[in-house]
Amino acid sequence: HRSLSTLLPWYNRCRRLCSPLTHNTISNMMNSQILLATSTSSKGPAKKKSALLPMAAGCIAGGIEATCVWPMEYIKTQLQLQSNVQKKPLPYTGVISGLSYTVNTTGFFSLYRGLAPTLIGSIPKAGIRFGLNAVIKDNLRDKDGKLTLGKNFVAGLGAGVSEALIIVAPVETVKTKCIELNKSFLSGMKYIIQTEGVSGIYKGVTATALKQGSNMGLRFMWFNKYKEIITKDGEKKMTPLMGLFGGMSAGCFSTLGNNPFDVIKTRLQGTNASKYASTYDCFQQILRNEGVSAFYVGVVPRMGRVVPGQGIIFMSFETIQQALEQFQFFQ
Q: Are 258 and 215 in contact (CB under 8 A)?
């Protein structure tokens, strides 16, 4: 009893000293856990959106972009079809002279030759591109919802190859021959079937897949990184001006990166494609007969078409997607 009486004051004193410490320690631990939980939830995997949302926004943006920049595509294709070893070169050598010559000789609307098949293809093509890219990205994200540059490239590559095989290859073949022969869409289609059969519509499919896959891989890799930086990883909304600059820079980057594929694809889809045994043979002949510089023929008019075009399509896509998010159907 006496021992207990002696120890009790010491016990009460220790409890008074320890209680505030214990209380503060527990409070600090609880606050830390709350902050950790909040931080983790904010940086966790992003909520997956419906694939219909980017697909619908991509379809609309694709139609807008194709119509706006088609004259530059027309001149670019004409310049690429002109081989350095041809006996009859084109009466123009650049973008401005090409636009001027075409308008003066065949009229302004001839600049839109070949637009019909491209416009028909551009709407579903852009839908597939943006929709499939979103789906692949969602499946490649890590546990924190992040994507590396490599994964962004793979997502764009997959979307690009898919759109090439489904839509781009046949549409580009018809478009190229319509421009080269100065024919309408129906006349060009009829010509291909009569001279080459139905399989002629898929000329250059390998080169098209290489061109489109690398194009979209480089483009989405650049734009997604740009968007991550400019929006501070989603904390801010992408404005139309931000989308325009991001798309233009992505278009410039991808054009410089894969123009050789574009030249090979165009040659294989032209009326003189029969002189090439394969995609590799086309590459060898161009390199042997015309030199390395031939792989960058048409790069200036292509950039004149792609750079503003990608600015328009990415700006349109981001703006349209934000507008469509308000509808329950796309949530």
A: yes
Q: What is the distance between the alpha carbons of residues 74 and 172, in angstroms, rounded to a whole number? A: 12
Q: pLDDT tens, 298-313?
A: 888 888 888 999 999 9
Ranges of H-type helices in the chain = 2-42, 52-81, 95-106, 115-140, 149-163, 169-181, 185-196, 205-230, 240-269, 279-290, 299-324
All residues at 6 or more sequence positions from 15 whose CB lies less than 8 Å from its CB, including other chains: none
**Orientation of helix 115-140 relative to helix 169-181, angle to 10°:** 150
Six-digit token string for 221: 């890799």
Query: What is the residue type of 83?
Result: S
In sequence order, the 6+-apart residues with CB closer than 8 A to the CB of 188 are: 114, 117, 174, 177, 178, 181
Look at 214 and 32; give whichever has higher pLDDT: 214
Model confidence pLDDT, tens digit, residues 163-196: 999 888 888 788 778 887 888 878 888 888 888 8
**CB neighbours of 259 closer than 8 A, spacing ≥ 6?**
295, 296, 298, 299, 302
* Report field, pTM of the whole predicted structure over 0.85: no
Number of other CB atoms surrounding residue 206 within 10 Å: 17
Cβ neighbours of residue 35 under 8 Å, at least 6 residues apart?
Answer: none
Contact by Cβ (8 Å): 180, 81: yes
Distance CA 43, CA 146 (A): 9
